[in-house]
Design goal:
rod-shaped; mainly alpha; 51 residues
Length: 51
């Protein structure tokens, strides 16, 4: 006997990034770290007079 899967179960399995607290925190953390790194590179470029 084969059980039918609910349509919502199939849709939720298709997404890698789900709308939950862990995903939102992870995306926010990664974006924040990238912005800090970009600012750090820009400041070091001005400090060492590369630009």
């Amino acid at each position: 006997m084969q059980l039918k899967k609910d349509k919502n179960d199939k849709e939720s399995e298709d997404y890698i990034l789900k709308e939950n607290k862990k995903t939102n925190f992870g995306i926010g953390f990664i974006i924040t770290v990238l912005i800090i790194l970009i600012i750090g590179v820009a400041i070091s470029g001005f400090y060492f007079e590369l630009w």
